[in-house]
Amino acid sequence: MILRASPGTVDVVERAARRFTGAAAGVAAFVRSPETIAFVAVDAREVQGWCWGYLLARPDGTSMLCLHHLEVAESCRRQGIGRGLLRSFMEAGVRLGAGKMFLTTGEGNLAARRLYESMGAGLATQGPTVNYWFLLNDARSPGVGV
Fold first, then answer.
1. Cα separation of 56 and 66, whole Å?
2. Is 48 left (phi over 0), alpha (psi -120 to 50) or beta?
3. I need a labelling partner for 6 at 20 to 30 A (CA). Which of 15, 17, 30, 101 fits?
């Protein structure tokens, strides 16, 4: 069964967060955030997988989805769970008015790439991309003041 994250499913999302990240301290606030879209796959015994991301407003009046994370427990892979999670995420975005979705994955993550491509994804056409992280609470970050 695939459940959409909501205030009524915080306990299930917390179980997913603990399983896949090792922590669940901020789940209640995460679930209440209006931009958050998240789903958890569960059966009677365990959390099988989850995905989460955001609906992003754009200055041209449209919106798009950002899939930040999709993970299925190793013991549950190759059963359609990832496909179901991704489909649920995309359908929720369409209902909310999103016209496109983006995500990043590792070049060598062939299972994820096959899933995304089998569901209609295409590689970004703007050429190679580079990802950067900023630690905003790090005093060593130049140009960031408090």
1. 7
2. alpha
3. 101
CATH superfamily of 2-118: Gcn5-related N-acetyltransferase (GNAT) (3.40.630.30)
Tokens for 54?
């955001």
Q: Find all residues with CB under 8 Å of 90, minimum gap 6, and list them.
A: 65, 101, 119
Q: What are phi and psi of 23, to 5 degrees?
A: -145, 155
Handedness of CA 116, 83, 30, 61 (dihedral sign): positive
What is the side-by-side strand order in the sheet with 63-72? 2-4, 36-42, 47-57, 63-72, 98-102
Cβ within 8 Å of residue 72, ≥6 positions away: 41, 48, 49, 81, 82, 85
Is pTM beyond 0.85? Reply is no
